[in-house]
Amino acid sequence: MRIAIGLDTDGPLERTLARATSLREQGFTSMWSSQIFGPDTLTVLAIVGRELPDIDLGTAVIPIQPRHPSMLAAQARTVQEAIGGHLSLGIGLSHQVIVEGLWGISFERPVTYMREYLNALAPMLRGENVSAQGERVSAVTMSPLGPKETRTPSLLVAALGPKMLKLAGALTDGTVLWMTGRKTIASHISPTIRAAAAEAGRPAPRVVCSLPITVTDDILGARERVNTQYAIYGTLPSYAKMMEREGAREPADVGLMGTKEQVLEQLGELANAGVTEFSGAPTGTQDERDAALEALLEYGASHS
Description:
alpha/beta, TIM Barrel, 11 helices
């Protein structure tokens, strides 16, 4: 299991660059960033990747509704060229409360929407022309989008339910997970997406997992901080279903926390569950976050 780290891009660009540089100097070679309400993540990653050309960068994840696949394909291929071919494009459906409540876009038939979106986006990312007419997504291109000569970005989908996992396995390179526990990955996520990829004749899929991580002796304090910081995720249906499947009552139940030895053991359990890359989201005090970074690097060095 490869070790990565979450890169917060929600702030001034110089601060993001300084943070990425510091993480690279510590030894991290893979970083993942989310797209929520701050700066455009792909644009920021293009700048980060030009400054740090030897790291892999990924989006976890880009919501698809505000972006037509032709626009996203052109942007992703441009970023891919800018950073030397190190981009993993993670995309997702976001959540109904955001899509309909904030963007005014229908969330109807989300799996159909994603299937049609992927049928247009995937060939565009490969530099192919597309003529796709779907119920919800249509796209026609007359020439390749973005730079003509660039490596195809790895394409992943945020998939949790069975239908989305089968779709991700059949049409993409894997999935990007958040707030999904070790037991659920082992019993549900990994076997479902691997079976779909095998049936479609695709390589074994990537399973990229991100979770809060804290190295601490103050378990009660750490749990309180995690539950406060990530309380919103227990209210979002897709994550709530995964927490219920895990037997988790609150976000801290799926996070990684404890002494360094306990956290290293939990990382091993994720690897055994089928995770191919873990992107840590360190939380807590500065000392706890620093200790989490050290644990991640230690695990990565001993399993490289």
